[in-house]
């Protein structure tokens, strides 16, 4: 992680702090309506754990479901730089992905990212794999159908990291359904890491 990375990360952290103040100061009745405009990042603790896992595993085919504004993409791309891999990041919003692209370019990591804009399930259907590492951080009702598409395409020893297993509380039902489903897949070892918003880490073993 070089100076350019740290400069972009600092910008993200400043935005996150500013938006957190705005959420606390705003009307709770309207907060949900504008929530999608906020950064809503995985947090630095989780991001650094994912970075360390990718580097430690030597993951090269990295998939991110939900670019959003690119906070986690920054860490995934830096890890891909180290492993010689590539991040395939999927996002429905072209505006969000454009913002993320600009940040990653300033961090000097643009060459390590393939930007895919569109419906996540449709895009996943067209990808062949095998995937070494996947971060799932999209609308929670899409976690199960995403898992159905991802599971057959995971590399042996590949990992899916699914965010928001604990918070916000309003998505816990969807999170619980995802956890039940992924833990029921033969050969999968899965555990909840109570860091950030809660991360389910699932390793796929096919043999």
Automatic annotation (TrEMBL):
Name the keywords, alphabetized.
Methyltransferase, S-adenosyl-L-methionine, Transferase
Task: Cite the InterPro entries for this sequence.
Answer: SAM-dependent_MTases_sf, SAM_O-MeTrfase
Record's superkingdom?
Bacteria
Q: Name one Pfam family in it.
A: Methyltransf_24
CDD domains in the record: AdoMet_MTases
Q: Which GO terms describe its molecular function?
A: O-methyltransferase activity
Q: Does the keyword Ribonucleoprotein apply?
A: no
* SUPFAM superfamilies named among the record's database cross-references: S-adenosyl-L-methionine-dependent methyltransferases
Coiled-coil stretches? none
What's a single GO BP term from this record? methylation
Q: What is this protein called?
A: Methyltransferase
